[in-house]
Design brief:
Length: 167
């Protein structure tokens, strides 16, 4: 992530904490740095693991949850609830994008689609100011398709072998 974006989100956090007389804790700033050093979507557990392994910084699950909640209020992080999991991503300087969600493994990948972005931008809304968008496209990723194909071929092979033994 560009350093200028990291500096800007730190300024936003600092300004908010000062204006509301909240403490400027090292936990908040370290979590913010870890979030904006992540290039992919992440779970609470993955963020906690990253803080331990890369920052040697242990924080409680409650601290992570409450800090991410604050970041969502400041519009620095967005939460995605896909299938049975909750994933987060840094969203400052990101007005909108599309996600592919595999319905088998749950993997979420970001895709860029200028026609979709243009359509959303030109969409007229009444009494509503658009800030951005998120679009989810559900399907099966190529890895899961390959596994399913291999499994189907194996089942077909077993079925044919059973039929050959009966005859």
């Amino acid at each position: 992530m560009r350093e200028s974006v990291k500096e800007r989100v730190k300024e936003i956090l600092t300004h908010y904490l000062e204006q509301n007389n909240y403490r400027k804790t090292p936990e908040r700033y370290t979590i913010l740095d870890a979030v904006y050093s992540t290039t992919d979507h992440f779970t609470l557990e993955e963020l906690g693991d990253k803080l331990v392994s890369e920052y040697n910084f242990l924080v409680s699950r409650a601290t992570l949850y409450n800090t991410l909640k604050l970041f969502m209020e400041l519009r620095l992080v967005i939460r995605h609830r896909v299938q049975s999991t909750t994933r987060y991503e840094a969203c400052y300087d990101n007005n909108g994008h599309c996600h592919q969600v595999c319905t088998m493994c749950g993997r979420v990948t970001e895709i860029q689609s200028q026609p979709v972005a243009d359509a959303i931008k030109s969409l007229r809304t009444k009494r509503f100011h658009k800030d951005g968008f998120t679009l989810y496209i559900y399907g099966i990723c190529s890895s899961c398709q390959a596994v399913a194909t291999r499994k189907a071929r194996l089942e077909e092979k077993r079925k044919n072998q059973k039929n050959d033994k009966k005859q």
